[in-house]
Amino acid sequence: MAKRKKKGRSGLFLKLLLLAGLIGAGYWLYAEYEQRGWRPDETAYPDQGAFVGENDGAIDFEVLKGLGASFVYLEASRGARGKDANFSRNLASARKAGLQVGAVHLFDPCETADGQSANYVTIVPRDADLLPAAIKLTRTTDECFERVSDAAVQSELLTLVNQIEAHTGAPVVLAPSEEFEDLYRPARRLERALWLTGDVEEPLYAGRPWTVWTANSAYDSAAAEKPLRWLVVRP
After folding, report:
1. Is 0.90 surpassed by the pTM of this model?
2. Residue 20: pLDDT above 70?
């Protein structure tokens, strides 16, 4: 009899564990579904937009504007050689839809600033109507073939900032990931506007306030087949 009771309790415990797991998985799926369509309240953040790159595929910028976007940032160049094949077409289409447009360079810490700035200026026109250029800082030296010191990364980044600003005639926006900021401290070393990432919750990792916030890195909308990175600007 005692063995039966023990076996019964064990079976009940396993059932409770399974039920708890199912409830947890269901909650996670629901939260993920809710987040896909979430964006900050427009009354609190009236200036909202999206970050678009080559991997996002075709974008309907008219629909994007209809969703409430007032601007879009487009990936333009990567390191010293990479270019977004859709940049020129996206630039024209976004402007036709009445959106403000900015260009983004993806910084490569494994390459010198001279090659990267040359790559940027060959694809992004000198145009006063463009939003301030942004430098995306996500890649680290872990992927470099040869060792690159932290000091070298910081030095090349400063040179790149100066070169792009000379081309555009305006201060750049720095967009470090949390990992990049922890390693190289660009937000603490360079007094530039910041573009930070934090899904749903405002990012605090840079030690000072953000100007642009990637509030949802997987925003599901009718403007694109794939989820977009949804942005807001601090009022």
Report:
1. no
2. no
